[in-house]
Amino acid sequence: MWGSRNKTEAQKPEAPNVLKDAVRDARIEAAERSGVVVDLRDAELARLELLNDALDPLFKEIPAGVELFDRGVSRGDTPRLWIDVIAHVEMGRDKRQYRFVQDTRYGRAVLAETHEIGDMVHAVTRYVARRLVERDRALADDTPFGQGTSLKMIEDEQRRGRLRALRTFVYGVVIGVAALFVLALFYSHR
What we know:
The chain is α+β, with helices and mostly antiparallel strands. The protein is built from five helices and five strands; from the N terminus they run H-H-H-E-E-E-E-E-H-H.
């Protein structure tokens, strides 16, 4: 009774660990998937490196004093070929299509999508040309330091503003006195 077991219990085989087997299978699947993900990321990096090499002649033509562009491949969860701080090339969903995007204040804008390196080089060339023109326009609109508004010009503008305020006050007083005079005449005749 106390120390004896039921013979059927002693002979019963242990139940298989269903959860333990499922966890082991899930780990094996995850390892296989991570291997595939690493292979895909390596393929993306290789395609971006090919595009980077194809862009070398373009970036050699940019004048030495222009520091707008900082090209390089970032190796994160989503590999990217950066053209400058706001534009980059990434791979599309199918991992064979290049997608050239630009960050704007309204979100991301897709500038070009293509499977061909030559077409993407052409799109990046157009973008670089536009950025260089924007830079030239911005530099042409700037007035050299010290030649803009001088202290004398600021003082003259302040003096004119004070004179304008004084003139407005005097006109208001004259109109107010005239209105009171007209009202006094109107009520005196009644």
